[in-house]
Amino acid sequence: MASPTAILLVSCPDQKGLVAKLANFIYANGGNILHADQHRDPEAGLFLSRIEWELEGFNLPREIIGPAFQAIAQPLGADWQLHFSATVPRLSIWVSHQDHCLLDLLWRHRAGELQAEMPLVISNHNHLRPIAEQFGIDFHHLPVTKDNKPLQEAQQLQLLRDYRIDLVVLAKYMQVLSPQFLQEFSPVINIHHSFLPAFMGANPYQRAYQRGVKIIGATAHYVTSDLDEGPIIEQDVVRISHRDDVQELIRKGKDVERMVLARAVRLHVQNRALVYGNRTVVFA
Amino acid sequence: MASPTAILLVSCPDQKGLVAKLANFIYANGGNILHADQHRDPEAGLFLSRIEWELEGFNLPREIIGPAFQAIAQPLGADWQLHFSATVPRLSIWVSHQDHCLLDLLWRHRAGELQAEMPLVISNHNHLRPIAEQFGIDFHHLPVTKDNKPLQEAQQLQLLRDYRIDLVVLAKYMQVLSPQFLQEFSPVINIHHSFLPAFMGANPYQRAYQRGVKIIGATAHYVTSDLDEGPIIEQDVVRISHRDDVQELIRKGKDVERMVLARAVRLHVQNRALVYGNRTVVFA
Amino acid sequence: MASPTAILLVSCPDQKGLVAKLANFIYANGGNILHADQHRDPEAGLFLSRIEWELEGFNLPREIIGPAFQAIAQPLGADWQLHFSATVPRLSIWVSHQDHCLLDLLWRHRAGELQAEMPLVISNHNHLRPIAEQFGIDFHHLPVTKDNKPLQEAQQLQLLRDYRIDLVVLAKYMQVLSPQFLQEFSPVINIHHSFLPAFMGANPYQRAYQRGVKIIGATAHYVTSDLDEGPIIEQDVVRISHRDDVQELIRKGKDVERMVLARAVRLHVQNRALVYGNRTVVFA
Amino acid sequence: MASPTAILLVSCPDQKGLVAKLANFIYANGGNILHADQHRDPEAGLFLSRIEWELEGFNLPREIIGPAFQAIAQPLGADWQLHFSATVPRLSIWVSHQDHCLLDLLWRHRAGELQAEMPLVISNHNHLRPIAEQFGIDFHHLPVTKDNKPLQEAQQLQLLRDYRIDLVVLAKYMQVLSPQFLQEFSPVINIHHSFLPAFMGANPYQRAYQRGVKIIGATAHYVTSDLDEGPIIEQDVVRISHRDDVQELIRKGKDVERMVLARAVRLHVQNRALVYGNRTVVFA
Question: Whole-angstrom distance between the N-terminal and C-terminal Cα of chain D?
């Protein structure tokens, strides 16, 4: 429905004139800015920006935009990414036993909420295969044990290459990825079933119940080699009461998990989540 | 603590190059942009922006900034406001019987949350006078009846002039302002004790109870001559249950009212709420 | 997993000894109360209660419990309902174009969150048939026009009888049920895509956008012959901003709609929602 | 306004007939139950209940109710507390530098929201004295150092005895109470400025900022000798964004802190929070 756009994500040391320089680059080449958002982190001395403009009427061909912008970015010491709305990212969803996040993502995709392709589901178990097949998606069963993990990660990486995957979404995939894997592939988004940093690690609902909290939550974050420590994209919570046992926490938590994961994936796919240090700027 | 800044609020017909033109105006004169936020409303064909920059190092003297910007704004057909962080707005708080919004605003002011002066409280009743006096604020008692309303509004307008008031905050002031008054003075912010447009008019908590809603709310809006119909700045809600009678709704609602009003006043004072049509853009 | 239980929902004029009389009825017959919840509405002079107890070890056979309790209820002037957890209610879901509420209910049912049978989907359009069939549920297409409405409602009622339906769930069914229909069949739960009583009737998201609200919501209620005026079971909201156009409101609203409807259906199925006057007590 | 009531809080090993036995005790003595709430924790094998009834028309004099109920409680192995609405608890509020929780509690007290007496403020600093005096409350300045802590705690305990204090509220009192103190006096309610168990200990807002969370919170809990580990009464959260620096987290957090603490104190004062193990049942 929308006309094609380009998106620049920029981060660089803060200095005068950055907004003007970015805007001029687009305006001078005939572009119409649709969205421009900036953030300054005075403590880090950083300027971060997301600019989206229409390609219709823009004078630079797509393949020239990057090199042309690099001439501006280099003297500023800027890191930058260039994305095109027409280039739809390819996602691989990884699951274990629970289906709620998988189903939610597939359904939102079908409803047009996620501008992405979802050609590949990977699981360490076999029983969610029917769901993938029902949506016409390839399903690969790669059981993981302590012994075969390096081998299976090699397989997983090969699949990611074969399917030209841009983003892995751990949609309740109950295995830890090795640092080696994460060096080979990124980004990876995970949904953790607690309000991080509370209840990092295993069994957060059981521990939330034991602690007697009155609210539980879920956290979507980029995966790093520090378990549950990566940059947070989105969090949300739900109120519970003393009447809720662990099973009820799990049931109520599932709704929060799928909402939070879906929002995080959407923010990523729209190039709205920009990582710096161990934090994200979310240009929402 | 912060160095003095200037803030431009701009709205104009959407066209190419607006971000660049605004940013260049500031950059060309040596300014350092701290915050820049834009919004496009495609349906209305409007571009709206808030830009804040440091005056330190800016080459234009304050009194020249407006005329200089007008040279840019006129060909764009732009409406604009120029504010300086050093020019603290002067607020008058109007109340009737209930003290919770008044106290909350005075306390936040004392805590440094509201960069404003609050020299004048006006009430149609006398019994909140001690609170105003306790905070060292002038209190004027202007009882309003059907007969004396025009006279009293003239008095109120005179007080607003005498105290050089920039913003009137109706903090549970239970009188309707006449269209004549609103022609003479604006802006006025009101807190309505319902989740508008539900329960417009009188006795919203009683009607919420009668309707059996499960959530109640409050709405802060700019006052127009259409009662409870002005542009909404902020809303929030709180969950209730069948155990809550009207008294409990009032008690729970008071917390929402004071939070919502305080946020709206803060947004206004920071020049973050921009009205267009019957809506607001909130650059938060 | 749980052992079978019986549930009494009681409402009667308030008077001394009601808790004791209800509890004694169960205790005297050897029952173990699992949950007991009461509410008094002093204004209405009503006492309302929900009591759930284990049938294991209860001395009265199921068919005798009702008559035995009636001997206690009659002198109290009590209305009461008796439910058995083993008697699973049969639901018919009605839809038009949108699939999100239908899918959510079917999926929760499959996940074991809704102790109900769902044998029948009715729609005035044909295109959600594949979803029903995918879950192995009968789908009946009954297009409704102004002319054929009485005829189609007769058909619908016949289907409800044929399938022995206990509850109709309007999961975004965009037709109004006639008073005649509602006299023949109840209860019916509807999801309305606004925070009632705001935006009753058609196109609530468009009207919410026009009004410039900062929060939107959804409401699940029992259907009465007054459109959107029936007793509210559950409501919830989501925050929006000026960046959200009508399409975004619809997208965000869909998540609230399906959550709110699912919670309301679950409360009904667990016999936790008790109507009195135009209100509900929700024993959650 | 309300007629005087009695409240029983009971916890005992779960067994048949408990609701009946409690209700009969009140009914047999002519009492009218206003509220009855129960909870069973199957894992702990516990039954917990709160019953409130009108004393008007109740046949037992107040001083006999306890002994009479003990005859029922003993064979059940029940722990119980008996409270009278007419016996208003006496609170001591303890503060350090920040005034927002203190002001909020004093103001709610004055508004009639807290049925309690508040005769005593204790602080390790002197500068909130004017607030206490403004509300006509005694203020005692007891500076605490590592060396004088045992001495000052002895003074504090003496003050609690002198003022016949029933509950200590740590309203941002930035000192840890010793285990010896807690053996001498309880209960104590604390407000912790994080969403426990996240960010236990010092500087939670700084650490929340460093971690890059998207939501912050506050927790009111009973104080035990394990710092920040006591039974949680109430929690709430507020959404933040990358634009919020530590100062903004502190500002937004203050609103959550005072709401959460006020709700927790109100629940305690109304005898609605019942501790068992390291958890609370909140009969709200």
Answer: 20
Task: Give the model confidence (pLDDT) of A165-220 as tens digits.
Answer: 999 999 999 999 999 999 999 999 999 999 999 999 999 999 999 999 999 999 99
Q: Do C33 and D34 count as a contact with CB atoms less than 8 A apart?
A: no
Selected for mutation to probe chain D from A206, A237, A242, A243 (highest D CB count within 10 Å) is: A242
Residues 21-60 (A) with a CB less than 8 A from some CB of D: 39, 42-43
D107·B111 Cβ contact <8 A: no
Instruction: Give me the half-sphere count of Cα atoms (radius 13 Å) on the Cβ side of residue D238.
Output: 22
CATH number of A90-282: 3.40.50.170
pLDDT given at position C215: 98
**Which among C16, C20, C35 is the nearest to D20, CB-wise?**
C20
* Residues of A annotated as catalytic (active site), given as ranges: 228
Minimal Cβ distance to A251: which of C113, C134, C284: C113
pLDDT in tens, B218-238: 999 999 998 899 999 999 999
> What distance in Å separates the CA atoms of residue B9 and residue B48, rounded to the nearest whole number?
8
A 10 A CB-CB count for C73 gives: 19
Dig out the tokens for C88 from the structure. Answer: 């699973």
SS3 of D51, please? strand
D12 — phi, psi (to 5°)? -155, 165
Are the Cβ atoms of B237 and C214 closer than 8 angstroms?
no
pTM above 0.90, yes or no: yes
Distances (CA, A) of D156 to A171, C199, D144, D190: 53, 57, 11, 16
Residues of B in contact with A46 (CB under 8 A): none
DSSP type of residue C225:
S
Cα gap B33→C144, rounded to integer Å: 59
> Which of B17, B32, B38 faces A27 most closely, judged by CB atoms?
B17
Task: Please tell me the distance from the alpha carbon of residue C24 to that of residue C18, in angstroms, as a whole number.
Answer: 10
- What is the rounded distance in angstroms from the CA atom of residue A200 to the CA atom of residue A198? 6
Interface test with D, best of A40, A206, A215 (most D CBs within 10 A): A215
- H-type helices in B139-237, by residue range? 149-162, 179-184, 204-211
Cβ(D268)–Cβ(D176) below 8 Å: no
Residue pair D17/D49 in contact (Cβ under 8 Å)? The answer is no
- Residues A111, C134: C-beta atoms closer than 8 Å: no
Q: Which CATH number fits domain D5-84: 3.30.2350.10, 3.40.50.300, 3.30.70.260, 3.40.50.2300?
A: 3.30.70.260
Query: Cβ of B107 and D103 within 8 Å?
Result: yes
Distance CA C173, CA C193 (A): 11
Burial of C197 (0-12, 13-18, 19+ CB in 10 A): buried
> What residues does each domain of chain C span?
5-84, 90-282
CB proximity list for C202: less than 8 A, separation 6 or greater: none
Query: What is the ipTM, given to two decimal places?
Result: 0.94
Cα separation, A2 vs B256, whole angstroms: 39
Which residue, chain included where needed, has tokens 């500068």? D127
Question: What is the distance in angstroms between the Cα of A45 and the nearest Cα belonging to chain D?
Answer: 13
Which string of DSSP letters, residue by residue, matches C250-279? HHHHHHHHHHHHHHHHHHHHTT-EEEETTE
Question: Which residue in chain A is spatially nearest to D275 when comparing CA positions?
Answer: A212
Show the tokens assigned to B265.
């006043």
